[in-house]
């Protein structure tokens, strides 16, 4: 059998050309896909502006970045004060920079202060310092490097009540072991007086608002209203208005009972004896209604003693008394 050499060469050449064309076409196709993907990645991502999260708490900063479709890269750093702990110190890129969605934003987060020296607590509120030391203790795994020696010494001064006047050890002292801080705290001015406001004739809600703002000591009494008197109104006060009295002198406020209440409502007088404090502390009385809603009744700075406040609430509401956000008492209306 004889083979036509020229026919074979033509056959091979023809198929080789087809193969080369196929490979070239595949390369061009892959190149087009790659270029398309590249330009989509470069130009397709949505652009967004970096928000300013410096000075914000970490959770709030993360929420703002999430809204902008940006992602955090966190870095921890000690700062100069324990009050910075958990807050953003720096960010990169800076606020206002236009970036593509999905960009990672560097956030420098304060992890508080390295406690190796005693801070200067003078002129700060003793209640604020207590909170800072509790946070410091939690950060140290429950080991209290600094604590407050009890009982605290108090003295009269021109500073507001609760302000630290002196401390021991001195600010800047080295901390080589757990230390109990000794403080002298202001009780306010000796024989400080207040001017009794005009309460008689006011609705109960307005009288509570005024008492809350003036900070006078007070005690409430409820009596039945006489003919022609409006209910839930201040009918008398002792001492009378515009009298100067010692800040610790209670003002007796008499309020009239409403003529009638709804079938499921009670008008009553809340009573609770609050332990005496060296100076007034924030006290809040609120009610949790049967439907679950919260209702503020009264807020005031109160030194201690019998705390009395009138209320009108639906039956089975729960009255909650708190001091400095710590619950002291709760009771159910009508029980």
Descriptive notes:
With about 325 residues, the protein is α+β, with helices and mostly antiparallel strands. The chain has 4 domains: about 1-45; about 45-110, Trypsin Inhibitor V, Chain A (2-Layer Sandwich); about 125-185, no CATH class; about 195-330, Trypsin Inhibitor V, Chain A, CATH 3.30.10.20. It has helices at about 5-45, 60-65, 125-140, 205-215, and strands spanning about 45-50, 70-75, 90, 100, 105-110, 145-150, 155, 165-170, 180-185, 195, 220-225, 235-240, 245, 250-255, 265-275, 280-290, 295-300, 305-315, 320-325, 325-330. Strands 6, 7, 8 and 9 form a 4-stranded mixed beta sheet that branches. The chain has a 4-stranded antiparallel beta sheet with strand order 17-16-19-20. Strand 19 and strand 20 (about 325-330) form a beta hairpin. The protein starts with a helix and ends with a strand. The model has no long low-confidence stretch (mean pLDDT about 85).
């Amino acid at each position: 059998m004889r083979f036509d050499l020229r026919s074979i060469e033509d056959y091979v050449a023809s198929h080789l050309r087809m193969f080369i064309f196929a490979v070239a076409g595949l390369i061009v196709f892959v190149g087009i896909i790659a270029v398309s993907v590249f330009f989509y990645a470069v130009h397709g991502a949505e652009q967004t502006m970096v928000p300013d999260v410096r000075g914000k708490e970490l959770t709030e900063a993360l929420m703002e970045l999430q809204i902008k479709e940006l992602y955090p890269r966190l870095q921890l750093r000690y700062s100069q004060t324990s009050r910075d702990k958990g807050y953003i110190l720096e960010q990169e890129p800076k606020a206002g920079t236009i970036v593509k969605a999905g960009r990672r934003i560097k956030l420098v987060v304060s992890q508080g202060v390295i406690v190796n020296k005693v801070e200067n607590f003078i002129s700060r509120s003793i209640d604020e310092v207590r909170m800072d030391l509790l946070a410091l203790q939690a950060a140290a795994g429950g080991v209290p490097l600094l604590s407050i020696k009890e009982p605290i010494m108090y003295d009269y001064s021109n500073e507001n009540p609760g302000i630290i006047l002196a401390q021991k050890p001195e600010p800047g002292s080295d901390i080589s072991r757990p230390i109990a801080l000794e403080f002298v705290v202001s009780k306010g001015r000796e024989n400080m007086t207040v001017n009794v406001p005009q309460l008689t004739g006011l609705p109960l809600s307005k009288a509570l608002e005024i008492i809350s703002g003036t900070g006078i000591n007070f005690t409430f009494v409820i009596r039945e209203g006489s003919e022609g008197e409006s209910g839930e109104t201040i009918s008398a006060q002792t001492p009378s208005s515009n009298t100067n009295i010692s800040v610790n002198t209670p003002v007796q406020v008499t309020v009239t009972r409403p003529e009638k209440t709804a079938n499921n409502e009670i008008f009553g007088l809340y009573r609770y004896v609050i332990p005496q404090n060296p100076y007034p502390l924030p006290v809040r009385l609120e009610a949790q209604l049967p439907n679950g809603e919260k209702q503020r009744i009264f807020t005031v700075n109160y030194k201690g003693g019998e705390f009395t406040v009138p209320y009108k609430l639906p039956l089975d509401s729960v009255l909650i008394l708190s001091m400095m956000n710590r619950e002291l008492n709760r009771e159910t209306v009508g029980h």
